[in-house]
Amino acid sequence: FNKGVALVNLHKYQEALDSYDKRIQISPNDIESNYNKGLCLMRVSSYKEAIKIFEKVRTKNYINLPEVYYNIGYCYNKLKMFTEAIENLNQCIKLSSDYIDAYYQKGLSLMHINDADRAIMEFNKVILLSPDYYEAFYLKGKCLMTFDKFESAITQFNKTLEVKPGFRSAMFRKGFCLIKLNKLEEALKEYDGCIEVDKSDVDCWYYRGVCLFGLKRIKEASESFDMTLKLSPKHPEAGGYKTKCDEVLKKMKNKKNST
């Protein structure tokens, strides 16, 4: 058992699994070894096998049942079996009402079945218990976007960025909300920030171009669409915008020459 724990600490999960298997062969009812085997299976993304182990542990009345139910729910989420995930996460919460990650995973499940209202309720519980849980602010913002509540979504993305500065996904979606509100200068700052984080971010280059085009900064917009197409030659919208930029720049040049 101790060898398995040591191997897990070294991130040698397959070796740890082998160690736990040997232990379980000798003592099939060693609940702790079975439980830790389940954790290792989660680490190597063997979620179906992990569920089987945790179900076995659950029936043996393992001392930390909330964690067992949480792990089962987490695995079902990874398998995109969201109804089963919610059932197990509810059991976890029933036994441990302050299990923060269970509320978060339940919120994820509800998002995936397009129940954004209830997902927001779960993320609110996460935030109440852990005000620095930036992922909950972020996903709450994403849920609000589904209702076109862009101002409210921006508030959540700002809270995300207070806790996690430079979080690319929050900046990206904040920028999108600002475009929807026609606040193009502010949106542009967000996409510039995204590009500072990752200069190969195709979508950020594209939306940066959209902002610049709307602001009639056509040459800069054209350069952004050039970068978009360099990174993704078959981008579905950038080519059309690039053509529009070329047409506008040509007209501007002809007008200048005629004067």
Characterization of this structure:
With 259 residues, the protein is mainly α. It has helices at 2-9, 13-26, 31-43, 47-59, 65-78, 82-95, 100-112, 116-129, 134-146, 150-163, 168-180, 184-197, 202-214, 218-231, 238-258. The radius of gyration is 25 Å and the shape is elongated. The mean pLDDT is 92. Helix 1 (2-9) runs antiparallel to helix 2 (13-26), helix 5 packs parallel to helix 7 and helix 6 packs antiparallel against helix 7 (100-112).
Oligomer: single chain
Q: What gap, in angstroms, lies between the N and C termini? A: 85 Å
What is the approximate shape?
Answer: elongated
Report the structural category: mainly alpha
Using DSSP, what is the number of strands?
0
Order of helices and strands: HHHHHHHHHHHHHHH
Rounded to an integer in angstroms, the radius of gyration calculated over CA atoms is 25 Å
Question: Biggest β-sheet: count, sense, barrel?
Answer: none
Runs with pLDDT <50, length 5+? none
Number of helices: 15
How large is the share of residues in beta strands? under 5%
Helix content: over 70%
Mean pLDDT: 92
